[in-house]
Design goal:
Elements lengths: L8 E3 L4 H6 L6 H7 L3 H9 L6 H18 L2 H7 E3 L8 H13 L4 E3 L1 H15 L2 H5 L5 E2 L2 E5 L6 E4 L3 E3 L4 E8 L5 H8 L1 H16 L4 E8 L8 E4 L3 H15 L2 H7 L27
Parallel strand pairs: 2-3, 8-9
Antiparallel strand pairs: 1-5, 4-7, 5-6, 7-8, 9-10
């Protein structure tokens, strides 16, 4: 992977597809994947990028919220298409689905049930004026690229919402009903991502950054709930030490072309409610 420094800077209109598949640089999701093993990360990077149903639902919720905040229906119309009721057991229904997909190529396509869920999740955020205020006065999904001082590598991040004047990044995510933020944060390595984002944004803007996490439950039946969380500074510092240990190994891997599997170590079977992800390549 090349580290093309000409990309350093902030880009407001870079598509999510270009950010992930074309633009150079290492992201927090790269480092989280590397924590499973450099070899596993390399294999995943070679596979076509596919968006899961959960990712589509999350992306659509982002767009709906952005359309509401900006009071711009074009954001919805340009990005989302809601399927009409179709009988897919018939040839006519299958043909109608194919035609609908062709007419709405490039858009997020939702069935009526998922669209209703997205709408109710956004309604839950809108009903909390203080939470809604976090998504005003800033930029939605900008792409930020910086050159890391220690390794010379190009790093990138894409905050869900950025309030640069306040030194604040907002991570907006849907959350499984019945889970907790701590559990989801552990499963998705939010501590790694938050510390990484704060460092990249701090480098670009020349000031310290914080990140808050706004989560809304994907409740199929009943009210959706909104939660606002932060991650403790000690946990962020621990996470930073872990991913930086991975980052420091990348230049030698780029130079040699070798991306080794992590060494085998004795593992404890003890399960913790909130476990810290440990770098497998740390000394």
């Amino acid at each position: 992977m090349k580290t093309d420094i000409k990309y350093a800077g902030l880009y407001e209109n870079l598509s999510i597809e270009e950010y992930h598949t074309v633009a150079p640089g290492y992201s927090s999701s790269d480092l989280v994947a590397m924590s499973e093993g450099f070899d596993i990360w390399k294999w995943k990077k070679s596979q076509p990028r596919e968006e899961s149903e959960a990712m589509t639902l999350g992306s659509a919720t982002h767009l709906l919220l952005e359309a509401h905040v900006k009071n711009d229906l074009r954001i919805f119309n340009d990005g989302i298409a809601v399927l009409p009721e179709l009988n897919l057991r018939t040839n006519d229904g299958k043909a109608a689905l194919k035609q609908f997909q062709e007419l709405n190529a490039g858009k997020l396509i939702l069935n009526p049930e998922d669209y209703d869920l997205c709408r109710r999740m956004v309604d839950a955020v809108v009903a909390e004026p203080e939470v809604l205020g976090y998504f005003q006065g800033g930029l939605s999904e900008p792409s930020v690229f910086v050159k890391d001082d220690e390794t010379g590598l190009l790093l990138k991040c894409r905050p869900d919402y950025l309030r640069a004047a306040d030194g604040l990044s907002i991570n907006f995510k849907t959350m499984r009903t019945g889970t907790s933020f701590e559990r989801q944060a552990s499963d998705m390595a939010y501590d790694w991502a938050s510390s990484f984002y704060c460092d990249v944004l701090g480098k670009h803007f020349g000031r310290s950054f914080d990140e808050i996490h706004v989560s809304v439950t994907k409740t199929k039946d009943g009210p959706c709930r909104v939660f606002v969380n932060t991650i403790d500074d000690d946990d962020l510092q621990f996470a930073r030490a872990q991913w930086r240990a991975l980052l420091s190994r990348i230049p030698e891997c780029e130079l040699s072309g070798l991306w080794p599997a992590p060494p085998v170590r004795l593992q404890s079977a003890k399960m913790l409610p909130y476990s810290r992800k440990v770098c497998p390549y740390a000394p």
